[in-house]
Specification:
Helix content is 74%, strand content 2%. It is built from 13 helices and four strands. The strands form two sheets. A two-stranded antiparallel sheet has the order 1-4. Strands 2-3 form a two-stranded antiparallel ribbon.
């Protein structure tokens, strides 16, 4: 019976990196092994960025990008907070989610219909949404309300933050969409060759619109959690979140050129960044050094991905042996 050969893929490389970082930090400071710290601090602090990374992974696989996610999150949370102060929880949550959908729709319209580059579009809307947030709030902080507080501070059973359950549900849903549905295959097809996918009968404009709207909706939901967790939010809170989200996606092995990627990589990369953020803080590493470590880990991962991807590509090349006796 022929034994199945175990392949060393980039996913395995991410798992090994995650375990090495976790064990290494835990050996230096055993506070890192505390369940309360792992769940209540490490995982809780990465949930909002992790949620946005799930949605933006779909966009990057099509060859697009969304740098405006941080600003959408902040604008949605602020409009929700302002609306809740005047009309209560239902109005606040509805206003926040509708704001996220509207921002995502506007991004999708510019990219899919007007055909403006995703990088240029979302770079511009990042500042547009930040400016709107500053205008609506007059530069002041917007405070949380009961619905957002419940999302940001509730612990299920008294020990697991409720937002972690929401993240797990979203991770499962996005994995299923990308790996098991026709929409997932369409997204990969657009990333590999958009024109060929369009001529095969796929409405590529509609697919792009859908994923940008979904991204906006997830950003708004993340904003509700963020507002509840920190009790207030300012217009510039999401300035660097877009790049952090892209960093997670690239670290997870999704090609920035489109056509390659999966949710397993994004989820593992989210955990790696969570371990790094919390672990380096536990070890009292200065912020400047933490940034250098983040950059080094990303560079090492990209080099590993390049080497492993090239090895897989070479192994798939069919070698044609000359037939004996052929003329």
């Amino acid at each position: 019976m022929k034994q199945k050969k175990l392949k060393f893929t980039f996913t395995w490389a991410l798992i090994i990196l995650l375990l090495a970082l976790f064990v290494g930090i835990a050996c230096i400071n055993n506070v890192f092994l505390s369940f309360d710290y792992l769940v209540g601090v490490m995982l809780r602090n990465i949930v909002e960025i992790g949620m946005m990374a799930l949605a933006v992974t779909l966009i990057v696989i099509t060859g697009g990008i969304d740098l405006s996610v941080g600003s959408i999150m902040v604008l949605s949370a602020m409009i929700g907070g302002i609306a809740a102060a005047k009309g209560g929880n239902v109005l606040g949550v509805s206003a926040a989610l509708l704001t996220g959908i509207a921002c995502g729709f506007f991004n999708g319209f510019l990219i899919a219909r007007i055909k403006i580059s995703p990088l240029v579009t979302t770079l511009a809307t990042m500042y547009l949404y930040m400016g709107l947030a500053r205008s609506f709030s007059h530069g002041d902080s917007v405070y949380s309300y009961p619905a957002s507080q419940w999302l940001g501070t509730t612990d299920v059973g008294g020990w697991v933050p409720v937002q972690i359950f929401f993240y797990l549900i979203l991770a499962l849903v996005f994995w299923f969409i990308l790996a098991k549905t026709t929409l997932g295959r369409k997204l990969i097809g657009i990333g590999l060759n958009e024109n060929a996918t369009m001529f095969s009968g796929v409405n590529t404009r509609r697919v792009k619109m859908i994923i940008y709207v979904v991204s906006g909706l997830i950003c708004a939901f993340a904003g509700l959690i963020w507002l509840g967790r920190f009790t207030s939010i300012k217009y510039d809170a999401g300035t660097s979140l877009g790049l952090k989200v892209v960093t997670i996606i690239v670290l997870g092995g999704t090609s920035i050129m489109g056509g390659i990627g999966d949710m397993k990589g994004t989820i593992l990369a989210t955990l790696i960044i969570a371990v790094l953020n919390s672990g380096l803080t536990v070890l009292n590493i200065p912020i400047a050094a933490q940034t250098i470590v983040h950059g080094l880990i990303l560079v090492i991962s990209l080099v590993s991905y390049f080497i492993l991807n090239n090895r897989v590509t070479r192994s798939r090349i069919v070698k044609i042996k000359p037939q004996t006796g052929a003329v």
